Amino acid sequence: MREFRSFAEFWPFYLREHSRPRTRGLHYAGTSLVVLIALGAVVTGHWSLLAAVPVAGYGFAWAAHMMVERNRPATFTYPLWSLAADFKMWALWLSGRLGPELERAGVVPERPGPR
Q: Domain limits of the chain?
């Protein structure tokens, strides 16, 4: 993995490491669960729920990299930028603005094939 000096340099790499829709989908599920758990902890005052945040977030993400994308998560080398990029990707997906970012990063849409 090359060395990145800024988040702006890291971001296209991050998107290419999440090129498959199923990888991104598992990340969205994990990030959504993280947000729901955190909100649940705030609303109920049960702060122990926060212990589930890393399990939910990393569990879905690492499963995606292991079983779908078949690459090494960038979290191991760039933990803070990976976390920021995950939330950025999630927010862009929720707002319907991720497509152009993927295109700029050189991520080619997968064509449906036989299953």
A: 13-102
